[in-house]
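Hey everyone, long-time lurker, first post.

I ran two proteins through the pipeline my lab uses and got sequence/structure pairs for each. Pasting them in order. The first:
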Amino acid sequence: MSADAHPYPRPDWVRPGLNWQSLNGKWDFYFDDQNIGLKEGCNSGALGPAEKQIKVPFAFQTAASGINDRGAHEVIWYRHGISDIRTKEEITKGHRLIARFNAVDYEVDGWLGGHFVGSHRGGHVGFDLDLTDALNAQTSKNEVQLVLRVRDSPHDLTQPRGKQYWEPQPKSIWYTPTSGIWQSVWLESVPLLRIGDGSSGTIIRSNDIESQKLHCKIQLQGNLVGTYTSVEIESSLDGKTIGKTKSDVSKLGVVNVQVPMAKPDGELALWSPETPHLYDLSIKLYDSAGDCIDSVITTTGMRSLNWTNGNQAFLLNGKPYFQALVLDQGYWPETGLTPPSQESLRKDIELSKAMGFNGCRKHQKVEDPVFLFWADKLGYLVWGEMANAYKFDDVYVERFNQEWMEAVRRDINHPCVVTWTPGNESWGYTDLTNSVIQRNHLRSLYYMTKTLDPTRPINDNCGWESVLTDLFTFHDYGDASVLTKSCASIEGALGKKSDRVMFVPAIEDSSNPDEGGKVRDGAPVICTEFGGINIAPKEGEATKEGDWGYITATDPDELFGMLENLFMGIAKGITCGFVYTQLTDIEQEVNGLYTFNRVPKLDPAKVKLIVEKATETYYNRCKTKV
């Protein structure tokens, strides 16, 4: 079934013959500022007297939502009519009707026709609500009301929020907050027993380029009782079958499959930003009678990462690779955190690549899955990051652990993701100097992530005060002379940045000692934030109060010269990559290479030349070291 003008929101995981319906568009909406909605029966479909309409998936704080209210509203309600989209054949086979949400910030409870259908906590990752039983309980065949109650506290600093500001007006590095539904919503008919995606535990390991095999752990979802099945995975490249393997499923609904990936000539098509070769994967689930009961189409890219070679180099496919990344925070003028369209996500990657960058650090945001779909296809490295909180306590720990693990599982199968970054600049960790508990939480995040995914490096606390990390990362917003000195030697990189040490010191307290921060000798060194240059407004040019940058250039020509000096200062030193701040302006932070509306401030082709010059400088420097 088509979804009118709406493309499918998860193009990275598609069932052939998919029966789905977009729920993006007009929903009924209600601000429940007195928190009386449950008492007044809103969960049964009767919203309050001040009912409005909102355009989903845009948050009420944005102009695109049709509401554009920047006030603090902790409890909000949504309502939308639902009809059963399943065919008679699907109903006979026991298909379930699922409402899928790519992201709702922050806590959501759902009802269908007054029947509770589930809840979820976490504003940056997706979840499903199974509507089937509640739909079957309806005596009427008319449209049934799906109702959501969403709570998003604007002032709770233990809530993972990233760059969403908790005060009335955005300022400095913090922006307009996002509440409620802010990514796509849709209905989908799925088999009773089905192939789970990464969020369900399916892991597709594409890093074994030596044996030229894909290692897959397929996790099934749904009714496993009394069902004996097998899974078949077929890989193809450019329409030609490469390998096919079929294996039995365990009673726990798991199957481990290895698929040969070498081409007939014995070569492996490797994925990289320069050659983003993707293999198509067809995954089929069979019942005990040999009938196919579910199938999924996805892609993978064969590539390996190595950060333990001891020469301060990051290796991609066995060779030193210079990561020329840009900080990308994923905001737009009319839509906030929500991309205006799927095409806008592709466009941002293309804008970045046009200036010579080969990837991004997706900063303080778990981006829409479509972004990773295009990063895979276009060849674009992504550092996966989480939105941090700003206060440390037991509530924060529980919330963050859950949502971070959900984010890693969701994105684990994308070859474009090359680093995990759970923490940034000690946000949420208010006393790493003295608190062993706070340090141990960062260590636990390292080990939790490493247990789930040993194939990627982990950047525990990007910028400074690292506790346990695979990469030595630092932030330095000094001018070219300062940055060049920082990057010239390990001693320079280890120097304090923003008055913070790079690695937490040992705590000698005999009752609760701590050994301090650790990184492997020879770990890759990367400057993961620098620059942030804005251009001074011309005389008489209109500006907003509070507009700013870390460094100010007088005009585009001076900005270009500053960029060249900064890039070369890094490339000539001990680093093997950088992350320039930033891709676009965002609200009052006007230090992007593009404006908020994605207009370039400099000729992209000229910027690309100096990125390429820095990259070549690195490769010439490291030839004798790796």
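...and the second, right after it:
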Amino acid sequence: MAGKKKEASLQASVTNQEQWEEVLATKGLTVVDVYQQWCGPCRAVVSLLRKIKNELADDLLHFATAEADSIDALERYRGKCEPTFLFYGGGELVAVLRGANAPLLQRIIVEELAKEKLVLEQGGERKAVKDDCLVDDEKRDEDKMSQQSENEESIIVPASKSYTIAIIKPDAVAHGKANELIMKIQDAGFEILAQEERTLTEVEARDFYQHKAEEACFEDLVQFMSSGPSHILVLSQVEGSDNVVPTWREFIGPADIEEARREKPQSLRAQYGTQTLFNAVHGSEDIDQASRELAFFFPNFRTASATEQDGEEERVERTLALIRPDVARENREEILAQIHKSGFTVALQKEVMLTEEQVRQFYFQHVEEDYFPLLLRSMTSGPVLALALAGAGAVHIWKNILGPSDVNRAKEESPDCLRAQFAVENEPINQLHGSESHEEAEREISFFFPKQQTLAVIKPDAMEEHKEKILEEISGSGFSVTQLKETVLSREMAEEFYREHREKPFFKQLVEFMCQGPCMMLILTKENAVEEWRAIMGPADPDQAKATSPNSLRARFASDILHNSVHGSSNEQQAEEKIHFIFGDICSDTELTGDGETNTTVSAKGQDNSADENTGMSRSSTEETSEGDPHN
């Protein structure tokens, strides 16, 4: 109880419109943690706020929590699970931060408090900002659909123009500077060919900055770049400039803020950056990096070929690559190195063990061919490595790198091609695959990396202390939360939810545990959602989780095999059944498929796929369903 009183005295609790207006009238800087009734305030930052309050000891600094569900002014924040902090001075919004990023939160508090004191002491102008979250929902959705449509329509860049990727980083976005920066970019003569707001997952940030992996600041950079939304821009050069890359890098200034302020005081980083890590903007280092970064963020972007003779266009696109089992076992890293050396970005990657049925489904047009038994044996002899490669003209370039599909012909006509280099002795089936066309590539990628839904549950033992961290992990791992609800299960609901374990000795204990307090039910959507969520959870036994998956949720938060923090569906069929049980009939763009067996079979979409011995096939979850485990 004493702890709660301290927390209440630190943060004023705002639960209605009248209290909200009183908080906005408070003199000084007020930091508001906006929360939803179902999840409560962000407890993860309370100790940090108390530390800041004690260290600064400033009467002009105030903290508050505000329940969006009951405050009209915060209506636009309802139904969102990401921690959000609003900074108010003189009743005006001066900064916004999304995500419980402690270093960034502390820095913004110190900076905005100093600005507010200057306004109060010297009568300076207070710079108010607008939060994108307050934009009308319908207009925001329309804008997003419009932007997606623009991307899908494949904007064409003439061969006479160069391009670069620019990123307005999370620190500048959190301070409400995105629109201001975009105006300055346009005023300087840069042409914005495409743009989108996007929050990078940790995995995406690591992939994007893999060239900096050996630098000491790499982990901090990854955490920072995945801490909140960025604005991604494709820029073309200003008039009279042959290459936009050096022009843009000159405009943004050196990465080191002190150097930028000393040598390029008018540069964007000198004006908007605060330190080397928080330097506001990013620019591609050279044209090759610009091309890779373009493929990373805008895989459907189209550019005219620099070598075109007849007006044909080279596409920045994705293609499916398969490394078949015999070669995947021995030469995986060597082939991946050649893929990266060729300038491809690996947009998606997974290793899968295919069933005979899956091979037959994908190669349905060839099951009567003489070579099919060899193909079937090859494709089921071990794990297949599936990759979605992105790059300019990816389909055509990858096919050329692979060489002829016939192994003997590849050795004779193109001995340096990958199929010749990695041919297996006495094996007539080639060991690598590439899509035949852009359309086939998208079908095949969807086949291997389909969007899925899974049911996730934050169990009663984790709700009090670990809910916020688990929600952050979900968001940071790239899942979309399609639906969620917080509920206390009745005995009847718990028994029905775990009905498959009714005859097991632990059933009664499991039901009693699940009824003892609130839990949170979530529908998660992502490519390969079922197995990715199970990987994030880790093994059901926390001791095993600590030994084999020390970064998993259960390794970090579970206390024993019963109180193991989280639940996830074992396969797609179970996910569909449990989602229906908890949420009823819901509309979804994601088709849930599966046969309910240990290895989930994903049926092929688009059965008119053109397939030959060069073709890949669908994926299968290799994770076993623990039928005797109450903690899936």
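Reply from user beta_strand_b:
Welcome! Quick read of the second one: The two ends are 35 Å apart (CA to CA). The chain has four domains: 2-131, 138-304, 315-448, 451-583.
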